[in-house]
């Protein structure tokens, strides 16, 4: 492995990855758990892996959530290791609020069995915002759960990717304002940028700021891994200019520095209601699959296995790396913006 890493110019992480056999499987540890608590959703958004019908509509049960948490904390990156300070457990979907009772049960057992204060991780929820209410937001904040709302700015930009009506948009906008006012440090938008909209990025940022938002996670459209070479720099310049005007605004850029995972070692494990466990890059791969870049058989490269068979997280990282380099043009494999991005946080 060391020879391969040197040949490919990749960073050594011998503390994190151990070669298991000549088959290429490597044992790795992750910093985050994404609980896909339901594959159901009340919207049909462009670019969502849900369009591929890879999973039947179903909700996660408490047994699955408990076993997922047990597997994660057994295989979590330890204190002082790479990016351990960003350890996170996130509720995802589908639309996670369609399985609200499970989320409540998870919050309860995590607080009892894996207290965040002791184990040093964050709890978070990513929602389209249409089912969120002020009382629900208060509940999440009171239980230490950060809220991310999918929000791309003005209505005409929001509806380019998200199947949202004007009434839904109005509700989501109100929830963005409410969360920003009640807990600005515990709330963030999840804002998607299409390359064609770079010229309107300042309008998007101003819309967020005027709504009271002070934290935004910025990501490229998952179907757009083929931006022109100059586009990432243009995006950064727009963000940097905005940050200079609004020093109280924090920007987290995905996926350019998502985990700094330039060697393709998994950083997040994603668990689905059917008990399947995947490397988080699977969500990206399924989106690219829609564009014909890879085949369904290639998705296996992102699969850890089933909760029923896993004690550790083993993956053929070399195969995943070759697949990504050939088909996904993953920006984390290009020169990173990590040093520059720190200025935006």
Short key terms for the protein model shown above:
345 residues; alpha/beta; TIM Barrel; ten-stranded mixed beta sheet; three-stranded antiparallel beta sheet; 12 helices; disordered N terminus
SSE diagram, text form:
Layout (H helix, E strand, L loop, with lengths): L1 H7 L9 E2 L6 E3 L3 E5 L25 H13 L13 E5 L7 H14 L2 H4 L2 E6 L6 H9 L2 E6 L4 H7 L4 H17 L4 E7 L7 H10 L4 E6 L10 H15 L4 E5 L13 E4 L4 E4 L1 H10 L12 E4 L6 E3 L1 H12 L9 H4 L4
Helix pairs in contact: 2-3
What does this protein look like?
This protein is α/β, with parallel strands linked by helices and 345 residues long. It contains twelve helices and 13 strands. It has a single domain (2-344), classed as TIM Barrel (Alpha-Beta Barrel). The protein is 35% helix and 17% strand. α2 (62-74) packs across α3 (100-113).
Class computed from helices, strands and strand pairing: alpha/beta
* Biggest sheet overview: 10 strands, mixed
Total separate domains: 1
Order of helices and strands: HEEEHEHHEHEHHEHEHEEEHEEHH
Question: Average pLDDT across residues?
Answer: 83
Low-confidence stretches: 1-19, 256-260
DSSP, total strands: 13
CATH topology: TIM Barrel
The gyration radius over C-alpha positions equals 19 Å
């Amino acid at each position: 492995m060391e020879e391969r890493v040197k040949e490919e110019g990749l960073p050594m992480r011998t503390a994190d990855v151990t070669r298991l056999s000549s088959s290429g499987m490597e044992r790795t540890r992750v910093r985050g758990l994404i609980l896909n608590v339901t594959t159901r959703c009340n919207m049909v958004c462009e670019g969502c892996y849900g369009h591929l019908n890879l999973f039947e509509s179903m909700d996660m049960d408490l047994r699955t959530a408990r076993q997922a948490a047990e597997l994660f904390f057994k295989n979590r990156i330890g204190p002082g290791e790479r990016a351990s300070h960003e350890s996170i457990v996130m509720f995802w979907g589908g639309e996670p609020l369609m399985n609200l009772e499970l989320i409540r049960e998870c919050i309860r057992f995590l607080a009892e069995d894996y207290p965040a204060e002791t184990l040093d991780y964050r709890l978070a929820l990513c929602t389209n915002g249409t089912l969120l209410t002020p009382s629900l937001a208060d509940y999440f904040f009171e239980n230490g759960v950060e809220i991310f709302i999918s929000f791309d700015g003005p209505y005409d930009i929001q509806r380019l990717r998200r199947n949202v009506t004007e009434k839904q948009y109005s509700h989501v906008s109100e929830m963005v304002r409410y969360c920003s006012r009640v807990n600005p440090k515990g709330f963030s938008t999840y804002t998607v940028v299409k390359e064609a909209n770079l010229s309107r990025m300042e309008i998007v940022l101003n819309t967020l700021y005027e709504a009271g938002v002070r934290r935004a996670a910025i990501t490229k459209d998952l179907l757009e891994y083929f931006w022109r070479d100059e586009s990432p720099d243009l995006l950064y310049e727009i963000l940097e200019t905005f940050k200079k005007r609004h020093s109280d605004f924090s920007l987290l850029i995905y996926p350019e520095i998502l985990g700094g995972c330039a060697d393709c070692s998994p950083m997040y494990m994603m668990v689905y209601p059917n008990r399947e466990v995947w490397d988080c890059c699977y969500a990206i791969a399924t989106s690219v699959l829609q564009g014909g870049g890879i085949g369904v058989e290639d998705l296996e490269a992102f699969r850890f296995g089933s909760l029923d068979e896993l004690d550790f997280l083993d993956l053929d990282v070399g195969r995943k790396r070759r697949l990504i380099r050939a088909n996904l043009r993953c920006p984390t494999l290009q020169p990173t913006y990590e040093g520059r991005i720190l200025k935006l946080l």
